[in-house]
Amino acid sequence: MKTFLLGLALIAAPAAAQMQGMAMPAPACTAPVIVPGFEGWGKGAPTPQLKLGATSSLVLAPAEAVKFSPPLNRAPQPGQRGGVYGITLDKPGSYRFALSEGAWLDVINGKGERMPSAAHMHGPACSGIAKIVDYQLDGGVYVVQFSGTMAPKIQVMLIGG
Predict the structure, then answer these.
(1) What Cα–Cα distance (Å) separates residue 45 from each residue in 42, 56, 62, 144?
(2) Exposed/middle/buried for 74, CB within 10 Å: 0-12, 13-18, 19+?
(3) pTM higher than 0.85
(4) Residue 83: which of 155, 147, 131 has the closest Cα?
(5) CA distance between the termini of the chain
(6) Largest CA distance in the chain
(7) Residues contacting 150, CB < 8 A, separation 6+
(8) Domain spanning 33-160, CATH architecture
(9) Keyword Signal on this protein (predicted)?
(10) What is 141-155 written as a DSSP string?
């Protein structure tokens, strides 16, 4: 019996060693994960413009056709897409952007300055959110630039204030 078990272990060891470097498939989602603050993610009719508290479905164009101002810190790669959208915030506060796709997000103030992000993280599996980025922003008009993605559309939700 010991010889049989030793034989099985020797046969299985190379296969186990080969699998260590392999990525495991994503878990099957049986129920959506709700991210606190983003309970409205994907609910209701998406808006075609960036809107506080609602899911927005934004169209992205080939990056070379988008006028980013200020220019991007990184050159777009072939096939990447982007878009520029505006938002007016009524009051200062902590704002969070949830994105359905991995993408670069730049928030530009009225002086044309990039605002630093306060934090960023991946969205949890099965949430539909790929990335969450936090900003401390004053009230006023902002330009939000999306870049570095291959997706023709991006779902975005902005919360906070």
Answers:
(1) 8, 9, 25, 21
(2) exposed
(3) no
(4) 147
(5) 68
(6) 77
(7) 79, 80, 81
(8) Sandwich (2.60)
(9) yes
(10) EEEEEEEEE--SEEE
